[in-house]
Each structure stands twice: as structure tokens, then as C-alpha cells.
Request: fold
Amino acid sequence: DAMVIQNPRYQVTQFGKPVTLSCSQTLNHNVMYWYQQKSSQAPKLLFHYYDKDFNNEADTPDNFQSRRPNTSFCFLDIRSPGLGDAAMYLCATSRRGGDEQFFGPGTRLTVL
Amino acid sequence: DAKTTQPTSMDCAEGRAANLPCNHSTISGNEYVYWYRQIHSQGPQYIIHGLKNNETNEMASLIITEDRKSSTLILPHATLRDTAVYYCIVHPYSGAGSYQLTFGKGTKLSVIP
Reply:
């Protein structure tokens, strides 16, 4: 089945130690998104790619970066994780803006 | 800020219809109403969307009032697997802002055996 895959499902890192989360899709969608969801809160969009065009939300901290080397893969890099970055990170895809978004299962990040 | 207002929580008996309301009184002419749900510890799942006509798919029905200021998501025969947080979101189908889903607090639906 076509799907959005996130690895790993659980990630533990140390304060200040860079970490990379990955997302892949078999849907061949043009748009890939990264959301952050903190405990008991709603998901919040960090940025998205339309093909290779990167679009950052205005309030996304500089500590968060992203790479999309090809259509299928997208990475979230957290350069210096703080305790406040502990959250579920959700990857999503859509054919284009406004279309339904398909979400992966998420990666739960713990910062020690 | 989210442009929608939803009840914080609702209960529904298993097998009965679940009717989830949403107010979006400031909706613009080019904005659609989308519904997603999030089962505990999973990613959100798209349910349905509409502009002004009522919509139905295999998961649910969406009823939008004529003035488009409110809508109701209907799960016709709720099961325990429908227990989730349901998010009503308004955003444009194309152009500026069409990429950003702004999630509000949603409604936590509990389906009771």
C-alpha cells in the first residue's frame, strides 16, 4: 500500500546533540510537510517542500532545518536539541496545496 | 490562531450516530472546511472536506449550513475505533495559505460501549 513512513518511531537524544529524523513516501506526492506536536497540543506546521522549493513557517526556530534530496525522502534536522524540543514529529504529504494530507505515524523525540 | 470553534469533548454510544459540530463564522469565500482525526499516538487522518454542498464518503458525512458559518461531521454508526480527537479546519484549496493546516484544539470524541 502507498504510504508515508517515518523512521525511527522513537528517538532519544542528548541535550545539544544533533539529531535527524527521516520520512519517506511511496505516494509520489509533490508536497512534503513537517509538523511538531507537543504533549496534549495540536500539530503545528514547521515547514514544507513543494518539489524542491522550501517554505519555512515564520515562527519556526532556526534550530530546525530540513532537506529533501529527492521526491521520496525528506529529513528533519535539529541542530542543537533543547528540552523544549521533545515532541512528536509528524511528516505528511499531499499532491498539491489544499489537497488532503497523508500523515505518517510520527517520531517521538525525547531529549535527555 | 485557529478560525474554528469546537466543543472540547463529546461522548457517543457505540452504534449510534456521532454528530460533531464546528463553528467557523469568519470563513472566507475561497476557504473549504476540512475534517481530520487523530487516534491516540497516531498521525492525523483525513476524513472529508467541502465548500458549500453537503458531502459524503465511506467514512462520514459533512453538512455545511447555507451561510457556511458552521458545519457538522456525522459518523453514521460510531464504533470504538472512532474514539479520537476530531479537528475541523478551514483553509483555502489553492493559493496562499493552502499548504498550512492550522489545527485548533479539536473535539475529543469518546465512543462508549
